[in-house]
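Technical annex B. To support the medicinal chemistry partners, we prepared a structural model of the target in complex with 2-oxo-3-(phosphonooxy)propanoic acid, based solely on the information shown next.
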Amino acid sequence: MILSKFALKSKQFQQPVRVAMRAFADVEVEHLAGKWATYGDLENYKQGKYQIKTFNKISPVGLSRFPDDEYDIRDQDKEAANAHAILLRSHKLQESDVPQTVRAIARCGAGTNNIPVPRMTELGIPVFNTPGANANAVKELVLCGMLLGSRRIVDGVNHMKSLGEQGLARERVEKDKAMFGGRELKGKTLAVIGLGHIGSMTARDAESLGMKIKGYDPGLSVGSALKLPNTIDLADSMAAAVAGADYISINIPYIKGENGTHGIIGKDVISHFSPDAVLLNFARGELVDSEAMKEFLDSGNGRYVSDFPEDLLWNHENTIILPHLGASTEEAEDAAASMAADTIINFLETGTIVNSVNFPNTSLPDRPEGAVRFTVVNSNVPGVLAKMTEAFAAEKLNILQQINQSRGDIAYNVLDISTEGHDDVLSFKGVQEKITMIDGVVSTRIIYGTPGKGYAKNIEGVYFI
Ligand SMILES: NC(=O)C1=CN([C@@H]2O[C@H](COP(=O)(O)OP(=O)(O)OC[C@H]3O[C@@H](n4cnc5c(N)ncnc54)[C@H](O)[C@@H]3O)[C@@H](O)[C@H]2O)C=CC1
Ligand SMILES: O=C(O)C(=O)COP(=O)(O)O
């Protein structure tokens, strides 16, 4: 038995912890991992499983991707003080929802504005989403929204209910229908702002309904461009795209702060709307400046169809508001949860990063037999990689393959280390501590096939395992 160095922040756990260190055949390289005694609840923690904390109702089809023998799924009513990953939908995630043990967060969906992503980046936690998984569901509702905005369907349905209650439905139906006339989509112009997964499919399908399509997206990807109808008129500004359009669909992310998209559909853009334009907002309520929109709706025949209630707009006579139903189909819920689960499994078990909104795509070929895999999250500053490789060399540990990627202020490394000639784990334990404590390193993992173990963090110069 070896008495580990064990840094403790919380006053309630001021006792050092004894750890069993065994021969490599029965490796416990994590030297305490999975205990995280500093962070509470040992009783409910199951050794040897990844603990996944979920918020919102996540599709059981998606959750079934997590093998029972390696994953312990805990919904938001269950305690999960030692969660290794978080899976959520629109839950507004607080930092206090994220225990120190969390290695990753996945949004079963597209928008990550409900997650404090910059803070998670500082904490070294990759945030993932599921690009395209729910896009078809949203596109169908946008098409539905155009019809709702054209044919006075909601008013008509409400009127029929009220007539029915008075016993007048049959008597009045033919006479009253004149109050609910509408217009057709065919031949009208739709402007699509944001031609990503949802926008590109909306453009394509609206064209097949006989509409003329304009579009605006300064960050158009090749994949999305290939889906666009070849008759699309691509504008070079939002104002140019919306000018003269009968319908405008916004399908862009909501990003707070400077250069963000808060209130991007404001007075300026709205001043280019046709007086009877229908704005479809199945992206986020905060993208639209409510006051400017209300002014527009008050002054003409324009309409607003949205998936999000806003104080000034929800009961305006020219608005139709839905309760954020865009992604609420069985198909979309299954697809988004499955993709999120696969992404988390891949990250936890191999360190691979795909579809992250704050970390670089990173993938190394499979870990060779007998190797252990180190992953390191560090600040993107010069010299950290050199210190890391020096630390391995000092322990005579051979790097078999490695990859180093960066994105903004963060860098991520995956390194496979040969275990040849190292049949005890001390060198790995020692080198993990050394690497974790290099200035600029945020966290490290050793992946060798045992769920839930091998994580270490450098929290303000203190070593946590
Ligand atoms: N109502 C609902 O239930 C759902 C809503 N959404 C919302 O829709 C948004 C878009 O979803 P996806 O199409 O899947 O995302 P996506 O990432 O595939 O597409 C977004 C597109 O917007 C473009 N863009 C960003 N800023 C722009 C700007 N200022 N002007 C013009 N284009 C801009 C990007 O270049 C990208 O091509 C999400 O961020 C989310 O907020 C997504 C899914 C469900
Ligand atoms: O994917 C998105 O961005 C959505 O808005 C879907 O939200 P939901 O998962 O239905 O709460």
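Notes passed to the chemistry partners:
Residues 330-350 form the longest helix (21 residues).
The chain is about 25% helix and 20% strand.
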